[in-house]
Amino acid sequence: MIRGILxxxxxxxxxxxxxxxxxxxxxxxxxxxxxxxNMSQEQLANMAEVSLPQITRIExxxxxxxxxxxxxxxxxxxxxxxxxxxxxxx
Length: 90
What we know:
mainly alpha
């Protein structure tokens, strides 16, 4: 065994619990906004130019979207970028 190499069997182990909770809340907020607009995940994916599997993973809190992806989602939803984080104070 080579010293200094960290083996991760599950990449999600790298997400701290605190971060996982935040990503889950973000995903729930995204899903709520999408459903309030009567949009399917596929429709949002097309409008935001983000892949459907990525939308699904974001809504489940599985991945940490980049700021550019969040901007694309806000465009797809027709909201200001700041509204994407409106769940933080609730």
